[in-house]
Each structure stands twice: as C-alpha cells, then as structure tokens.
Amino acid sequence: MEMTDDGLKSELQKQGVFVVPVEFLYNWSRKSSIWPLQFGLACCAIEMIASAAARYDLARFGAEVFRATPRQADLMIVAGTVTKKMAPQVVRLWNQMPEPKYCIAMGACAISGGPFKDGYNVLKGIDRYIPVDVHIPGCPPRPEAFIHAIMTLQRKIEQDHLHRMRCYNKESPAEYPIPAYGEHDLEPPANPEVWQPPKDYRDVTLDEVKRG
Amino acid sequence: MTPSFEQTSPDAKPVFLVERDEAVAVARKLKNDPRWQMDFCSCVTAVDYLKEDYIEVVYHLYSVALKHGPVVLKIRAPRDLAQCEVPSLTPVWRGCEFQEREAYDLFGVRFTGHPDLRRILMWDEFKDHPLRKDYIPPQDYEWEPTPHGEVLTRAKAQGGTIPPSAVVEVKK
User: Fold this and answer.
1) Distance (Å, rounded) from C-alpha A108 to C-alpha A196?
2) Looking at beta carbons, which residues of chain B come within 8 Å of A183?
3) Which of A120, A126, A191, A199 is the best substitution to test chain B (most B C-beta atoms within 10 A)?
C-alpha cells in the first residue's frame, strides 16, 4: 500500500486499475469464498442448514458451497455434540482438509461438551484435538449468531499475513494425531499441543500478576 | 404355564417377574395366547440394583391387535459379570434385537440366544458398562470457575489444582 501515493491510486482507479498488495487480493479472495465441509453432528446442524437456506442466505457471504468432501473444503463447522465415538472421525476429516483451513466450533457441545459435559460418552470440546478459530456459544446458536461467526472468520482471514499463517509455518503440524479407542476412554484424552487444562486463576499469586 | 411371581404396578398394569429359565416360555405364551396377544415389544431396558445385587431386565409389551398394554416383563440376573445372563427374547419379538444389544452394552447383561450380541453405542474396544452403578467414569474433568460439590471433588482428584481456599462453604 505504501508504495503508491493516494493521488496516483485514485487516478489509476478512474482508469479501472486497482493497486493492492498481493496479500490483500489473496485474503480477499479466500474470505469471499469460504467453502464449508458438509457435515452436522446434532441439532446445531439444523441451524447451520437454516443459515444456508433462503431466509438467511449464506450465499451473501460467499460461504454457501457446502462440499461433501474434505478435499475441497476450507472450513470445518463442528455443529453439534461430538461423541467420543465420533471424535476420531472428526479429527481424520480435519487432517484430510487442505490448508489453509479454519474451524468453527458451533454450540455449547462442540465448545465444551455442553449439557453432556458430565457424561462418559461426550467429548468435552472439540478444541481438545483440533485448533478452533471461532467459537459460537448457544444451544443451539441462532442463524444470526452463525453468520456473525462467519463474518468474524472473514475478518480473521483478512488479517492473515502470508509469512505468519499456520499452513506456511514449517513448525506447525501437518497432521493432528487421531485419538484411538481405548478400553475406558479415548487415548489420549486430549492433544497437549493443542489443548491444556485451564489454569485456576486463584492459584496465581499477586506477585505473578505483577510480573505479568 | 404360570409365572413364578406376579405383582401389580401402581397404575394397575400387570407386571410379571419371571425366572430366567421360564422367560422364553412366558414370553411366547404372552405373545400367542388369544387373550393377551402381546405382539409388540416397545422397550427393553435394565435396572441396576446395587444393594440388592441383581440387575433386572425390563420388557414393555403392548398388544396392537387388542389395543391394550403395557404389560411389563421383568427378569433378574446376578450383578456379577460372569453370571449376568438372561435368555434373549429376540426370537420371540424381532424388535428386541437392538435394544438387547443396548442393554448388553450399557449394563453388561449377556442375552443367551441373541443372534448378534455386540456393543451398539460404545466402541468395540470399550471394556466398561457405563450405566452400572459402580461404573467409574474417566477422569477428564477440567477446572471450572464455579466448582462445587461432586465436580469439585473430581477436579481435585484429577490434578489437585484446587487450593483449600477455593472451597466455598454454602450458607443455608
């Protein structure tokens, strides 16, 4: 942007020439054509479907092309309760999606297990295995909330820098480990590289707060 | 052919508590007797009586032909996994198949004579039976901003990250 002064840019725009950084063009085209993966796990999926249908019309945001294969999808919407039996399949689908890819955890269950948090069979949040970009609270969230999440994700994509994106970073894992079915629980119960148990803020002493 | 024990539920619906070796015969009788004609088994479940040390398998039967029901059929088995066995009623009512698999999955009741007794909800590698009263769930609870009661105890057991000061006495 800094390379052209505003006067020249304005003059060029009158001629139909737009001068923008490649990064802007790259991010603009990606954010305007988010293709979600077509799958739903529970009642949140109904709200997701409603968002894509005529009344809420997700096509306004360029995100209406739900793909039935992970190979063509940019966005995974985890819409609904992730049971422990389903979790390995969700992680496998995530691994099969090409970068750059994003994840929305839709609804209380996908975020934390929701009302089933105390159960033996429900994963306590999909963020235990895969990195989540946007969380939508709600049980289930209304289509407005879902559209808000899409717009939040668009803002996030807008601000991506080519040299800082996860997918272009050699350090970031190409694949996330798929949990195995154990005798009592999934093994491991969480991916420590993605998720750590929240720290109890009452354990933090005043000195630590002062030190930052 | 009489059931070994008969009782009546509070809403005056008949309840049969039958011995394990008589169950199939009683079921066939209920299905085929023209006065009963219990042609539809709507629900199969189990109840775990920890203190009494038995598991009770409960069948709810209806008659579509005569429009009456439910008639409840109960079969008891010892809680011990090795002996926890009841005869399958799938040969009598075909619709019992999946529900008996569910009872096997969650309570560990083995149904002898069942055509395809596998887990139906949990994965095959799973070893526990989660709806038994003595089931111990995996310790994957995380700390919550407002830990209380049992959640607090579990969180403590998991990592011991809760300081004693966090235990808030609830004033009554």
Assistant:
1) 19
2) 125-128
3) A120
Cβ atoms within 10 Å, residue A65: 16
Q: Which CATH class is domain B5-133?
A: alpha beta
Q: Do B127 and A118 touch (CB under 8 A)?
A: no
The reply to whether residue B166 touches residue A202, judged by beta carbons under 8 angstroms, is: yes
In angstroms, the CA B103 to CA B77 distance is 13
Q: For B55-112, what is each residue's pLDDT tens digit? A: 999 999 999 999 887 899 999 999 999 999 999 999 999 999 999 999 999 999 999 9
Q: Which CATH class is domain A22-211?
A: alpha beta
CB contact under 8 A, B163 and A202: yes
Domain ranges of chain B: 5-133, 137-167
CA distance B98 to chain A (A): 18
User: What ipTM goes with this model?
Assistant: 0.75
How far is residue A157's CA from residue A148's CA, in Å, rounded to a whole number? Answer: 14
When pLDDT is averaged across residues B137-155 and rounded to a whole number, the result is: 68
Burial code of B63-92, b = ≥16 C-beta within 10 A, e = fewer? beeeeebbbbbbbbbebeeeebebbbbbeb
Cβ contacts (< 8 Å) between B123 and chain A: which residues?
Answer: 84-85, 181
Q: Where are the domains of chain A?
A: 22-211
Which of the residues B123, B125, B136 would you substitute to probe the A interface, choosing the one with the greatest number of A C-beta atoms within 10 Å? B123
A14 touches chain B (CB under 8 A): no
**Chunked in runs of 10, what are the mean pLDDT values of chain A (212 residues)?**
72 87 91 93 93 93 92 94 95 93 94 89 92 94 95 93 81 88 90 80 60 62
